Amino acid sequence: MPPIQTNVPLQSLNTFGLPAVARRFVRVDGLAQAQALVAAGALANGRLVLGGGSNTIFEGPIEGLLLHVGIRGRRLVEARETAWVVEAGAGENWHDFVRWTLDQGWPGLENLSLIPGTVGAAPIQNIGAYGVEMAARFDSLEALDMDTGRSRRFDAADCAFGYRDSCFKRAERGRWLITSVRFALPRKWTPVLDYADVAGELRACGVARPTAIQVADAVSAIRRRKLPDPSQLGNAGSFFKNPVLDPRSAAAFRQAHPTAPCHDLGDGSAKLAAGWLIDQCGWKGRAIGPVGVYARQALVLVNLGGATGTDVREAAAAIQASVAATYGVALEPEPVFVGGDGGHRPA
Length: 347
Ligand code: EPU
Fold this sequence. Notes:
Layout: E1 5-9, E2 21-28, H1 31-39, E3 47-50, E4 56-58, E5 62-69, E6 74-79, E7 83-89, H2 94-104, E8 128-129, E9 132-133, E10 138-145, E11 151-155, H3 156-159, E12 176-186, H4 196-204, H5 212-226, E13 235-238, E14 244-245, H6 247-256, E15 262-264, E16 270-272, H7 274-280, E17 287-288, E18 291-293, E19 300-303, H8 309-327, E20 336-338
Parallel strand pairs: 2-5, 3-5, 4-20
Antiparallel strand pairs: 1-2, 6-7, 7-12, 8-9, 10-11, 10-12, 13-19, 14-16, 15-16, 17-18, 18-19
Helix pairs in contact: 4-5
Bound molecules: uridine-diphosphate-2(N-acetylglucosaminyl) butyric acid.
Residues 129-130, 237-238, 241-242, 261, 273, 275-276, 279, 284, 297-299, 334 line the site of uridine-diphosphate-2(N-acetylglucosaminyl) butyric acid (EPU).
């Protein structure tokens, strides 16, 4: 069984740079180690799984056992007629994995370049950017049932992927430790250039028929311009989900705010731009205590120095209240709030 440490500081293990400690902490490097922890009963009372810490807001100490996933490894599993099936350990850094697949000549993940976090965290919230969601390239994953020690393979249907969502955030929350993920990368590749930003970036570089690596470079350049580097300025990426309105609310919203970005989802429902709503409410570039609204993208909250999880919650609440008062729209945080009162709390 891997050694369990006590009172481990977590500031460097979350991209917002929030101070917190794990009363008990263990680093898991493989399936066998995780199974040994289950067999020893170490995971029976209170546990929390941490990957790259890019989507976790620590509000206080973690009283249970915090499992830090360090499972490495990446390999080609199968060359199917239509796709390369590639597997990576849950603890692999997402962006390094994306670059590695591209270097091997297996395109498909390029639009998801530079997203912080680990491979194992990617399916939990079905990461997405620039017209591609992870679900579109997903094959299957292996996860350990932390209650029984048995491992199981999940296909896409089992995962119930949605917009920044999966069963691991809902019904199955807290039960599974994702140990590895497989991706099916199309052998017949066409670039996804639906986003004007990406097409524009490539045009500006004089690229007419981009390779996957050129798309990855374009996406990386855009992200570097728009989003703060967590090693320079603590943040958790987009802090709020883009709200989805049902058909009736969408129609009413359009009528009241004809100039607001409002993306029709085909069935009358619509997705709004949370960044636009926050920006319109005047928050962009402002500080709420030690938490800032990033000046180049209102959807991103940043740690101006010394912020705590409670400061982040208060800043988020102030923004939510003002967007609700002005537009009648409820914003939902994307990161998960944990700790403080001994357990998980919905944001
Ligand atoms: N906007 C503003 N002001 C702002 C920010 C945005 O007016 O301060 C407007 C933009 O002009 C645009 C609209 O809002 O019309 C949408 O903004 P943007 O294109 O920047 O994308 P987003 O919807 O804010 C989403 C994802 C990002 C992903 C990008 C690109 C969510 C919550 N966010 O952002 O994902 O990289 O699209 O595909 O879905 C993340 O999840 O951490 C993340 C960065």
